[in-house]
Amino acid sequence: MRSIRFCIDDILVTEDKTELVVTGWAYAESKQPIKIEMVNVDYFKVEKFERPDIFHQYKEESLALETGFKITIPYKEKNKIVFSTKDEEATCNFRSNDKTKTQKSRSKLDVFMFIFDFSNIGKLFKYIMDYGVMDTLIRIKRVIIKTSLKGIKYNDWLNRERASTKELEKQRKHVFEYSPKISIVVATYNTTESNIRDMMKSLIKQTYSNWELCIVDGASNNISTIKVLKEYQNKYDNIKGNYLSENSITLNSVYEELKLTSGEFVGLLNQGDFLELDALYKIVEGINNNRNVDFIYTDEDRVSDSGKEFSEPQFKPDWAPDTFRSYNYISNFAVFSKKLLENIGEFKDNQNYDLLLKLTEGAQEILHISKVLYHGRSYNKNKIDIEEDKEAIKNQLERIGAKGIVEDGLFQGSYKVEYEIADNPLVSIIIPNKDEHETLKACIESIFEKSTYKNFEIIIVENNSTEDEIFKYYEELASNNKIRVITWDKEFNYSAINNYAFNETKGEYIVFLNNDIEVITPNWIEEMLMHTQRMGIGITGAKLYYPDDTIQHAGVILGLRGVAGHSHGGFKRDDLGFCGRLKIIQNLSAVTAACLMIRRSVYEEVEGFDEEFPVAFNDIDFCLKVRGKGHLIIFTPFVEMYHYESKSRGEDTTVEKIARFEKEVKRFHKKWGLWIRDPYYNDNLTLDEEDFSLKV
């Protein structure tokens, strides 16, 4: 089996069409050094650089760190790269053409495009024989559609990711330093025999053995339900049953049962749902790794009635309070300390969401295990459920001292909190600009014509314009007492320009806005202000579209393509996104400064933008500094704008600009390498694309 893994990320053709610059990564799973060579070229230059994303992907093996490469070769149409270790060799054929040079990407990070030579069926089959179907599918996907990989069935992926028989046996023999008893409570009522057996088998075969199951049956009148429950209860000492005389099961009755359990940790499981065989082992492993953890949840999916087919994987973020307030992404299965349960007091009857909100509020540390360890039956919320969910959120707001109204979200089962805006603070909008008279005019007019919030000022930062039209426009704006034009006459440095402009602002809240933005949402300032005013929130970002109504920005994901990239790039405007994430308020690691609001005190706390990032990554670095001070980042889909992206500055496609970009990449890695794993993404999702497709 081939152990050499590689990926060609990008190809650049120089403007004079004399050279190609190829970037990507290569790693040998055999843990041997890789040699990179080009075939039939007059010369080639290989430069290596660190790829923290690959380093984390391969569990921090030392050779996995410096896996990035940049190859410079003379321009020609057909090319071949050879990756070799002392034991094996792998090759990659690709070709360049006019499209390679002129291809424009939809992201600052997608600077290049490559096209593999699949010009005839014979070469395609040879590629499959050399590299396998999976690698071929990946490369076809990259070339043709750059969307989620449709050719991989989730069931196949799940089977591949499951613990092997060997690993399960190893787990059974492992002795933890701390082995708490886990008490699982399940409420049943006329549950089918097959569903009960699926659930029971998954518990009985757990590789971690210190658990008990407490069944609360609500007077099932299905004889087979009672029969099979008692069958397991009589056979296993750690399975207990409480059979009610009438169907009076409520969450509080389950809660009373939980209080009587003997485990140090407890959990709820829906009737008929079941666990992976290593679920409890992984939970206890997480507890042993950090003894402060007192609330644990995992990824999950949906299982068919037959119990054999799996779908709708829910690859969840780590703990994200605003995301959880938008919808219950933890769902039904969680394990928590009994002490935490005892401390929360009463909760709303039949309200799983209310229970989870209280548990997560009181938790010392929350652990998310990014493995699919829970398989749930499909369930749709009814109107009563939705109203109870909204009531649970409302009650939480009262407990934490936040004022707001809870409304229905943009899809069923999601919610939006309209937070109360305190007072009428001045908002300062900073817009850097060079030339582009019509672009700036469209931006300014959209602000004045559409904004419902009126207490704002605009600071335009003039930077080395040369066209007469823009200076005439500045003169026109001089009569508007809400607008000031200041001048930055040094070379372009986005960070320095905004830091300079900040000192000229008077507002308590600052918006950094690109000149190629057009406002869509009339109450955009209010929507951003309601979050940025909240204690604990540092920055609020917006949802941006290309002119064709596809997504340009819906937040930033760390680690994409080795550094960072935009979430859901290229998706349609009305798309829900992965697990509805294009339609909910959520916590993210970073947002673009093309439209970003921050509180003045937070800006001052992090000392503004880092001027060592003149063009790229300054906004991501800025957000990470804010996060480092303990503030959360918010993305809201309720602020929509068009973004024409880099009109003033132009595209980053020259060799000189690429060199500058690479310098900023290296600086970003050096500064934030340990942060490259994004807690608001998921380890099971690809870092090669922006579409939340499976990592393969």
What does it look like?
The protein has 696 residues and is of the alpha/beta class. The protein has four domains: 1-101, Immunoglobulin-like (Sandwich), CATH 2.60.40; 103-150, no CATH class; 165-382, Spore Coat Polysaccharide Biosynthesis Protein SpsA, Chain A (Alpha-Beta Complex), CATH 3.90.550; 427-672, Spore Coat Polysaccharide Biosynthesis Protein SpsA, Chain A (Alpha-Beta Complex). It contains 20 helices and 30 strands. Strands 19, 20, 21, 22, 23, 24, 25, 28, 29 and 30 form a ten-stranded mixed sheet that branches. Strands 8, 9, 10, 11, 12, 13, 14, 15 and 16 form a nine-stranded mixed sheet that branches. A four-stranded antiparallel sheet has the order 1-2-5-4, with no helix packed on it. Strand 8, helix 6 (193-204) and strand 9 form a beta-alpha-beta unit. The relative contact order is 0.10.
